[in-house]
What does this fold into?
Amino acid sequence: MTADAVTGTSTSSTTGAVGSAGTYAPAPGAAPLLRMIAAQTAFETKLLLRNGEQLLLTVIIPSLLLALFSTVDIVDTGADEPVDFLAPGVLALAVMSTAFTGQAIATGFERRYGVLKRLAVSPLPRWALMTAKTLSVLVTEVLQIALLTVIALALGWSPHGSPFAVALLLVLGTAAFSGLGLLMAGTLRAEATLAAANLVFLLLLVGGGVIVPLDKFPDAVGSALGLLPISALSDGLRDVLQQGAGMPWGDLGVLAGWAALGLGAAAAFFRWE
It folds into this structure.
């Protein structure tokens, strides 16, 4: 007679491991897929929120940029209130810093230290790991956006437009940047990922329409920069929140294209070690 430690039931067996029906109790095997994704999402979110360097990149820098450029006349934004131009751009920057820069660096070093190698032998599929990482980014972004919105409102921001359009832009932007970040982390060495992700962050901060309007660049350069995901996200958010426009289909199309390209390439080329 043996007591099952998990189910609390007793079974009679000559081996003590197999029940009377000849089956293991509890039955061994992987948890349901949705439960695995939920558990991995919670784990990824805790890791991200406990990392001081990640919080500097994802929370403190966007908040300081919003407060500084809204109160000090450094860049001519062309808006009556600089915060009306800057707030949507900084929201886009927050998405990029979390979904792309922070995730690429963290995942790159997880790969280097063998964390992903161990996950590779677990029942969690590669695409489910990417889904969990993207969902953890969305949870973090909710906190970012709430904080930045409070700061912007305190600085005199007057947002307009459809909340649904804003949410759709943010979700597609997250998917696009998450796919690109995972692609970088899964194909480059950790040190190369660290350098490249930070360099891209700085370049897109200046040339992605976040703080400096794209019409300040030469026409050909501005048109090319407008096809970047950070530009599409910041311009789309600005059209809705500053101008009160309807659904920005053009910007949504650019973000959807980058999301399909990034996530598809990451799924195809991501290496666990």
